[in-house]
Design brief:
85 residues; mainly alpha; 4 helices; 79% helix
């Protein structure tokens, strides 16, 4: 039960990060990408410190994986007819 609740909280807060600029009234994709990139780098470097792996490499790896995930999501949305306004 605790693991499930922790997972829910972690995924929910992570999913909220890209929406923060829009919730603050900024309608800028660049701001959302910048905040998301910073959060991915911070998360990756934190994991690097906790695991003893090289910190810059861990941060950049997380940023790259997040970028790939975003690109795949955009591609799938485009293929099924999603629209960007």
């Amino acid at each position: 039960m605790l693991a499930g609740a922790s997972s829910l909280a972690a995924f929910s807060s992570g999913a909220l990060v890209p929406l923060l600029p829009y919730l603050a009234g900024l309608h800028s994709l660049a701001a959302a990408l910048g905040i998301t990139g910073a959060a991915l780098l911070a998360g990756g470097t934190t994991v690097g410190r906790l695991t003893g792996r090289p910190v810059p490499r861990s941060g950049l790896r997380q940023l790259a994986l997040g970028g790939i995930a975003g690109a795949v999501t955009f591609a799938v949305g485009s293929l099924i007819g999603g629209h960007v306004r």
